[in-house]
Amino acid sequence: MGVKLLLDKANVPGIRTYEVYRREGGYRSVEKALKEMTTDAIVEEVKKSGLRGRGGAGFPTGMKWSFIAKPEGVPRHLVCNADESEPGTFKDRYLMEFLPHLLIEGLIVSSFALGSNDTYIYIRGEYAWITDILEQAIDEAKANGWLGKNILGTGFDCNIHVQRGAGAYICGEETALIESLEGNRGNPRIKPPFPAIQGVWMRPTVVNNVETLAAVVPIINMGGEEYAKIGVGKSTGTKLISACGNINKPGVYEIDMTITVEEFIYSDEYCGGIKDGKKLKACIPGGSSVPILPANLLLTTAKGEPRYMNYESLSDGGFATGSMLGSGGFIVLDEDQCIVKNTYTLARFYRHESCGQCSPCREGTGWMEKILQKIETGKGEMSDIDLLWDIQRKIEGNTICPLGDAAAWPVAAAIRHFRDEFEWHVNNPELSQTSNFGLQHYADPIHVPA
Amino acid sequence: MSEQTFFKVTVDGITIEVPAGTTILQAARQIGGEVAPPAMCYYSKLEGSGGKCRTCLVEVAKGSEKDPRPMPKLVASCRTTVMDGMEVKNITSDKVLEARAGVVEFLLLNHPLDCPICDQAGECHLQDLSFDHGKSGTRYEFQRRTFKKHDLGQHIQLHMTRCILCYRCVFTADQLTNKRVHGILDRGDHAEIATHIEKSLDNEFIGNVIDVCPVGALTDKTFRFKNRVWYLKPMDAHRDCPTCSGRVTLWNRGDEVYRVTARKDEWGEIEDTPDGKPGWICNTCRFDKKNASEWVIEGPRAISRASVISQGHYAGNVGMTIPTETFKAVNGGRAPHLLMDIHDESEVNQPDIHLGQIQGPSNGTTFNNKKDNA
Questions:
Q1: Are A103 and A216 in a shared domain?
Q2: What is the pLDDT of residues A225-271, one digit of tens each?
Q3: Is B109 in contact with A190 (Cβ distance < 8 A)?
Q4: pLDDT, tens digit (0-9, with 9 covering 90-100), for A270-287
Q5: Helix or strand or coil: residue B264?
Q6: Which of A98, A279, B9, B149 has the fewest Cβ atoms nearer than 10 Å?
Q7: Same domain, yes or no, for A82 and A183?
């Protein structure tokens, strides 16, 4: 059993209510932080913990907090990014649904550290029932003096507002989220200025993921240094992984980032192996936008070392032979899955979710979708594969926000690792409609190309 | 106020000093010529515009004197401010040219390419951009997205199929008019400029959206299908207008005024009036004053020689260098052999008379007059 810091109390009956949460030791970190610590000490503690943003990019949270501008007389804001829309990622949903008070607690401590008197939770519109859960938790916290004016007699005022999005993936991008929060069309802003200087209503703002803010609670409770001892290297603490796809036990797991990918997929404690005794073909380890990896490169790195479930190990080898931990949306594909179809589905998603602001993403995502559909339906030509490669290369890095990259990476990785499957689709237009390419080059047992 | 600080910036090997806060694009425009990156969405007169079309991407090879690291990605030059000692590569960077060709391809992907029937042809930024940076063929083989044409009020027609979503018209309406009634609906490649539930644009300054539109998406209904811009002769003119500066360009053919636009500079942007304000014009000047007698004509407008609009104009040599050598000198001392010296027949080819100043070409009457006089 690995260490659990976030979900350890998730199975306590009634933990969603304030009484049970408090009885189980909740809101201790607020008492400690507000009464015993200065704001700088909290930021320092988070820095020491080595906590990295859990939303996908993995930016060190303490450093992000220290960037926030502090002009005199201008309010600052903390925004919790609960617009969890990445296909394959559902960890924040679990956290908010079952442990709403953990998030509220983390938000109060973080708001105190950043000096935010009005803190916002921007939650995706589809999580309608979670909005109610959060609002109820906020009301309970307020009734018990953890929110509102003069919290614990320290003179610190804090209110948390829940704002529902309207169902756009792009609003998970922090500047688009800010635009949407302000009531505008959710188009990403052009950076700089960064939100830390000019965010919500042009005020200094920090936008953090739900899990990041929840992780602040154990950091304050146990101290940053203790927290940093969990995990390995620069991947400290625990990470929620939402595992889905062709596995026996899909769900949200808290791991301490020292386990191997193989253990995570095959051990009964976690995913419990591939469903129906099938073989592992490929995996998207960090939410739909990160590069897909074939089984051999997933379980071991190109150097032949076992791959671990942490930031460094999963990105070992760069995009050529590695991927990213991303947001922790772990999608497993078994031998019966068609990579072309999978890539087409993802391309369709990104086309649909592109905001249409900048040209490479607006036009390129639609083009890629159409070509992938053509290949998938058996009408593809060999030149289409090279064309796809060329299009994704022209999107990546040339857009305003990372959605362009997110749309380009899955296509790039699929062609990089599964080109023969694309070629098989082109060469066997009829057969590809009725059967699958299967494993061929990517079967267990693990074979690592030289 | 402390003294303004100046930063040194090098674009394509040419160093220039610009005030702090200047964008790379503006600095490059001060150098001018090919060094200036193309811009489809950026419009210096509109606050907040730019960053969207990605045609102005440049490579920053050296961040600044203090931090010489290159920037990891290409940056949008219209929204990136210069740092002291910054080195920028525009047309000298293969990466930039490749990305730009990619952007042109993306912009043309769903563009109908109906230039032969488009009013914007000849003064279209997308035409210029694809001529400079695009490829002759397309690799796109699917159906292009189309929209129905919409009338936005009495004078403006929206042809959404041609739109490249630069957002300029949205910024124009935001910043020039009291109440914006049009904007972007939907997202992605099906996003469109629209009024919410078929409203009309009827603000006194809304006609300027036609001028800022880089393509033929917003066209002047009083000019639609009336003429091609390269047949028209642009003339600077002004009138005493109570609402706007009244400084315009008239597009004439003969004495007839075909259309009225604001005056545009070499970057296709509205020129400033002498008092330094952008020279936006009002709807009355633009749509209703189509009679030459209502205007004080200042003279022919200088048009870039590279532009198709300057073709066939008598005043085409405005701003042009006239060669000083004679044909005889160039031809090794031999004068051209003339079959008939037509200088005798009319004043058209009198070398000492400026062609722009003569009343009209020679005709039979001229010839007969000469004969009778002889």
A1: yes
A2: 999 999 888 999 999 999 999 999 999 999 989 999 999 999 999 99
A3: no
A4: 999 999 988 899 999 999
A5: strand
A6: B149
A7: yes
